[in-house]
Structures are given as C-alpha cells and as structure tokens.
Known about the structure:
Mean pLDDT: 95
Radius of gyration: 14 Å
Largest sheet: 7 strands, mixed
Helix content: under 10%
Number of helices: 1
Distance between the termini: 40 Å
Amino acid sequence: QGQLVESGGGLVQPGGSLRLSCAASGVTLDYYGIGWFRQAPGKERRGVSCISSADGTTYYDDAVKGRFTISRDSAKNTVYLQMNDLKPDDSAIYYCAATETLATGQAMCARPIEPSSLFWDYRGQGTRVTVSS
Length: 133
C-alpha cells in the first residue's frame, strides 16, 4: 500500500522561502500525476500546483504563479514544491496527492482531493505553512 508524507512546512517571514517535500513509499511517483493543494482556515481546499505524468505539463494557480515551482526527484521518489516570496495569504495546510489517471496539470488541479473523490489514489496528511512577521 502506497503512502505519501509531506514535510518542510513551518513558520517563515513574509518574503521568505520554504521547500515542501512529498515523499512516497510503496509507489513510484514517476508513474503518477502529483498535485499540491492547500487549505487555509475558513477556506476551501484549492489546487496550488500540479504536474502531469501524461505530458509533463505543470499548472500553477494564479495566486502562486511565478513564485512556486513544482518538480520531481525520481531518485528520491519525491516531489517538491519550492515556495519563494511567501506572503501571509500563503499560510495554510499543504497537502500532496497522487493519481494514476492521465490528465494535464490543469485538469488535475481542478479535481478535489477529498476522500470521496476517486480521482486521487493517494493523499498525504498535510504540512502546515505559516507566513507571519
């Protein structure tokens, strides 16, 4: 049974950077599309960035475009989310999810990751990011 574990969250000042990791065990992430989602208090969970296994396309929500970068490290079986120039609005719990379903990055990020959704095969437990001075 596969498992995803997020790490790298924490407290950072505005303008700072963090790199989130989504490490997998029991599955090979190269064969999966990966999505990063976030949920802030009182807000819906939203797709932040996704990378497709079908065509390699990446997608970024407008709120993070130009500041966040998603990438794969096949040797470490890990997907990263590099977050630069962080803002207080980036504060949230960040989740990663993996799907074998072939789709573009944009289509992936449009899919909810709640357990009721059959689109995602694996979901992590989340890592908290707090951006505050």
